[in-house]
Amino acid sequence: MEGMEKVIYCKYYAKMCIKLVSHSIENPYRVFYYCPTPRSDGGHGWMEWVDGKPSSYSPNCKNRYINRRSDCDELEKLLEFTKEQLSLCESKLNLVEMRLQLDTSNLQNKLVNENMSVKCLSKWLRWVFFVRLFFVLLIWFFCGCDS
Ligand SMILES: [Zn+2]
C-alpha cells in the first residue's frame, strides 16, 4: 500500500477525518487522524494514531492537547478566511468608490453643460422677444396710424 492514502471516516458523523501532526512532548511529529467536526457543532474530538500503536501518555491529557490544537487550527483557518473576505470587501469598496467618483464627475459635467445651454436658451429667447416687440411696434406704428 505504498503511496496510497488511507481514508478514515468518523464513525459518528460520516465525515472524512483529517490528518494532523502531533507537537506534544510525549508524541512529537506523530501523525494522527482527527474528526473534523468542531466541538461547537457537537464534535467529540475522536482521534487515532496513523501508526496504530498505543499512545505513550494518558488519553485525557492527549485529548485535551488535541482538542486545543484542533481548535487553534480551526480558528487560524477562520482567521485566514475572514482576512480573505475582508480584502475582497475592501477591493469591492474601492471599486464602488471609483465608480461613484466617476459618476459624480460625469454628473457635474452634465450639470455644467445644462447650465450653459439654459443660459444660451434664455439669451436667445430674450433676443427673439425684443425682435418680435420691434416688429409689433413697427406694425402698430405703420398700420395703427391709418385706422
Ligand atoms: Zn466525528
From TrEMBL:
Residues 10-53 form the GRF-type domain. InterPro entries: Znf_GRF. GO terms for molecular function: zinc ion binding. It comes from Lithospermum erythrorhizon (Purple gromwell). The chain crosses the membrane at residues 124-142. This is GRF-type domain-containing protein. Keywords: Membrane, Metal-binding, Transmembrane, Transmembrane helix, Zinc, Zinc-finger.
